[in-house]
Amino acid sequence: MSERYVGKRRDAYGAPEDMEAFASEEEVDVTAAMPPLVIVTGMSGAGRTEAMHVFEDLGYFCVDNLPSSLIGNLVDLNEQAVGAEAAQGEDEARKLAVVCDARNRDFFGTLVDQLQALRDRGIDYKMVFLDADDDKLVSRYKSSRRRHPLCSDGSTIAQGIQRERHLLMDLRDSADHVIDTTDMLPQKLRTTIRSLFATGAERRGLSVTVYSFGFKHGAPLDADLVMDVRFLPNPYYDPDLRGLTGLDAPVRDFVMLREETIEFNKRWDELLDVLMPGYVAEGKQQLAIAVGCTGGQHRSVALAESTGDYLKSKGYRVSVAHRDLKLAEGVRSAEDGSGVRRPKHAAR
């Protein structure tokens, strides 16, 4: 995805100048190609639960074990909710993903009719059918010690699988995507679904939080990566900068334009370029990066903002926060020099 960003105008710190427009542009590109409705079905034990987790991570509103007769009702309710949000100035459509399977007694009799009704209404949808070899399905059920939904009469797991396969034969043939999970690990299934429904958006599946903190207020407990930047010169010892924060231009320039910071940022960005694709490939959904200095007011704030901007420029979903900025004493605005101000991150 990085090729999309070649030629973007960048500020002195290497970030695109119009970051908000940049982020919104990327979000539109990612979601526009996703179908508004996805129906997940297939053999019991083939990975439907894992598939729903992927669609949740992609921003879909997911409903498991939905009776097929209620699909139309769910679509209607969603359209009403979207209309109400649009009236309030929120125009983002909510996408739906539903699981319909053999757990519902009316499944086999009405799902085909419901799908035809959706087509008649002009509703765009995609159907995913998850399958696996019989031996693998039997092994998974034995491992989980759960009862197959079609074995309520005392029949064996293998017999229940055969019944289900016979009933689903026509539905499998009409599916938009058939995924065989026989030899798939969960990570491979996640990657396969993302490649089908979010092509080029793999990095958007990883939610990254970058936050600053002060070591004197305690080390972070929830960070996956911790970067200690106390080796950099401290603006605290400059009387003109002591009452400002890393969100203010004078402090940001003091920290970011120093030769040692420029060299550090170069190496830090190179490290992130190695780590981030690995986290994406592994299927990690959340990542917390903590940047710490002594008080969490100057150096860590400026570098957390810089780190967040860099990761956004690479196509990741990033939020930036400043854990200990509210604890800083005598913080004043660089513009008017008066009073304790609310940090800019509060609105993020």
Quick overview:
The protein has about 350 residues and is of the alpha/beta class.
What gyration radius follows from the Cα positions, in whole Å?
Answer: 26 Å
Question: Any idea what the shape is?
Answer: elongated
What fraction, in percent, of the residue positions are helical?
Answer: 40-55%
Number of strands: 9
* Major beta sheet summary: 5 strands, parallel
CATH architecture label of the largest domain: 3-Layer(aba) Sandwich
Walk me through the structure.
The structure is a single chain. This protein is of the alpha/beta class and 348 residues long. The chain folds into two domains: 34-198, 3-Layer(aba) Sandwich (Rossmann fold); 203-347, no CATH class. It is built from eleven helices and nine strands. The protein has helices at 19-32, 48-57, 71-87, 107-120, 134-144, 157-167, 169-174, 186-197, 249-256, 259-282, 299-313; strands at residues 37-42, 61-63, 96-99, 126-131, 177-180, 207-214, 225-228, 286-293, 317-322. A five-stranded parallel beta sheet has the order 2-3-1-4-5, sandwiched between helices. Strands 7-8-6-9 form a four-stranded parallel beta sheet, with helices on one face. Strand 2, helix 3 and strand 3 form a beta-alpha-beta unit. The longest helix has 24 residues, at 259-282. The radius of gyration is 26 Å and the shape is elongated.
